[in-house]
Amino acid sequence: MTKLTRRHFLQLAGAGTATAVLAACQPRTQLIPTLTPGSTAVSPTAAPTAVSGNIPADTEILLRAIKDQVNIFPDTAANVWRIQGELLQGNANALQTLPDTYLGPILRGHKGQKMRIRFENELDEESIIHWHGLDVPADMDGHPQYAVATGQSYQYEFELRNRAGTYWYHPHPHGRTGPQVYAGMAGFFIVSDDEEQALELPGGEYDVPLVLQDRRFNNGQLVYMEGGMDQMTGFLGDTLLVNGQPDFTLPVASRAYRLRLLNGSNSRIYKLGWEDGAPFTVIGTDGGLLEKPVERPYLTLAPAERLEIWVDFSDRPVGSELNLVSLPFNSGSFNSPQFPVLTVRVAREAGDNATLPERLSDPGFFSPADAERSREVNLQMSMGRGWTLNGRTFEMTAVAASERVPAGSLEIWEFVNGGGGMGMGGGMMSLPHPMHMHGESFKVIERQISRSGQAAWNTLSEGFVDEGWKDTVLVMPGERVKVLRRFSGDFPGLFLYHCHNLEHEDMGMMRNLEIA
Ligand code: C2O
Ligand code: CU
Ligand code: CU
């Protein structure tokens, strides 16, 4: 079983600095509320298989947030909240239901296609769905001000304007995003376009979306937030699930695959490595395909980030196994030990193979020299208020003067992680923050690390992939990260930027920006 004790997962690095914080955190147990049984649970199987193909316009989908039960472990029906999908109109490939998991269906669309999605909330609390990474109008983006109550629905209509890539969807009600995602509400949203299709990358069953999520269990039931500490650091589980399943094995044919990795965890960062030390060939980031493939010794995957990799298993004999692990690293106040992620088993010979294209896409980046202005966002712990952005926490519709962006401008936003924050008990806490912006993607153009942050940074930095379009970027303690983004103004209004450590987001490490 892919399980470690909490002791293993939560090794304190600078014991002196973190002890004061730990002491200040009141122990508290809060189980996910007991839920009424829904449909009958079924037994676990392997990875979801992918379907590819063109989808005609006017796809109409119904997504319902429901309470349900799923066998995450055999013999125990776990209470979950999940998103159930139904295709009302359009090509059958637009919605792929995954058996034996709490995950929502995989939605697929082609650039230019118009989507109509009706979200119905059957939970006992308010919710709303956000399309992470998609460039949609402000009122279609799942802003918490549009959260709908029990029994109510929200109608989305938008055109897919994004580049081909691996996007995803999850709830976004203020203060409850962490618990709702944790209880099971999340799914992939995969976009294709003509440029990508011309490449003939591995498709169908050779194109595999994989979401990594850590959870805690008590008698087979999900447990969230065992202590006040979880809010300040972010929740860390002791059991790793891939596509909602423990001990995940991916059976493959001996040929090339396209693996789409999503970190769907509330706060855990992964440093992914093949156990035999083989390097990774990265072909895509949050916002789609890179200009050309790049190599990395390991992959750093922060919450909400996606990486697409090209893996060729053709040299591996049938019957052989390869383990993907998370390698040890230090993220400031914490050490993450090595733990297993998944096993690939070469199950059969492949009749064919694919060739990795030398050139993948035309990313169309902007030039930093054309930036019209720069803004700084300080990621700070403020005494008594928790994590803040420039000293502010979330206000539903408020925007500070420094958060107003003139439509059409090209801007540099610099995220500054001071590296230390006052913990609740007066102790210093150094934490990384995965910073996310809604709306159009950005490009990471510069990173600077302080001397005090260097040692921890060195344990993860070779796994950053800044060559592509991003919507989430990890900002390590002591680090300043500059991103370049165009705010086209096609969609004016309020959009969010926030830390995607969901416990930080829920405590208010989130703000509006207004495009006007
Ligand atoms: Cu993944 Cu504000 O979102
Ligand atoms: Cu988002
Ligand atoms: Cu954070």
Question: How would you explain this protein's 3D organization?
Answer:
The protein is mainly beta. The protein has 3 domains: 12-27 and 202-348, Immunoglobulin-like (Sandwich), CATH 2.60.40; 48-197, Immunoglobulin-like (Sandwich), CATH 2.60.40.420; 368-515, Immunoglobulin-like (Sandwich). Helices cover 8% and strands 44% of the residues. The protein has 7 helices and 37 strands. Strands 11, 12, 13, 15, 17, 18 and 20 form a 7-stranded mixed beta sheet that branches. Strand 22 and strand 23 form a beta hairpin. Mean pLDDT is 89; it is low at 1-57 and 422-426. CU-O-CU linkage (C2O) is lined by residues 130, 132, 170, 172, 304, 436, 438, 496, 498, 500. One copper (II) ion is lined by residues 130, 132, 436, 438.
